[in-house]
């Protein structure tokens, strides 16, 4: 009995939706509204839901009535259930390193967004330095990966691949919408190939095709 709760957009929950799709389990994809707010940001936790939020934030995953939060913790738990960590401890280290680097970038974008574009210097730094440096590091990392195959660990998809694909696409889109500039990943075929491999994984492709348009 699983319920995922988040706002009505992809955001942080989409990677969890990918992992749940690959795991092939039925779940309730609950989307709480933003009380008619036309913009996706800033986020305000809807009134009344606080009681269900262990740390006042979404997404949450409810399992048989128990509520959990923290996207990566939820992903790791599901990856353990569905065998999506890779085989060895080093596989896990290798792929989760990428997750943390993605997270660093995501947090830089969010920090920037919270300044509401008032700080032009920070914005310029993100667009011209921080983001391009991170994207080029990802490209280099994929170029040098020791495992042959479409995914970070070769032929087997892990939750780290899903984290990479979901966040790079969604946060890149978010940046384009709110900051007028994305990650420019289209200039990096290796990154595009990894994202495409994730999006073509049959269960994820099926989810992408039937998910609500947000
Ligand atoms: N580290 C947490 C961050 C969660 C988080 O920041 N959630 C935002 C939405 S994306 C939220 O619920 N914010 C509530 C608020 O700002 O009122 C995670 O990865 O799940």
Automatic annotation (TrEMBL):
SUPFAM superfamilies in alphabetical order:
GST C-terminal domain-like (SSF47616), Thioredoxin-like (SSF52833)
Classify the source by domain of life.
Eukaryota
Instruction: Supply the Gene3D superfamilies for this chain.
Output: 1.20.1050.10, Glutaredoxin
Q: Name one Pfam family in it.
A: GST_C_3
* GO function term, MF aspect, one: glutathione transferase activity
Q: Which InterPro entries match?
A: Glutathione-S-Trfase_C-like, Glutathione-S-Trfase_C_sf, Glutathione_S-Trfase, Glutathione_S-Trfase_N, GST_C, GST_superfamily, Thioredoxin-like_sf
GO BP annotations listed: glutathione metabolic process
Q: Which positions fall inside the GST C-terminal domain?
A: 88-214
**Where would I find the GST N-terminal domain in this sequence?**
1-86
Q: What is this protein called?
A: Glutathione S-transferase
- Which organism is this protein's natural source? Capitella teleta
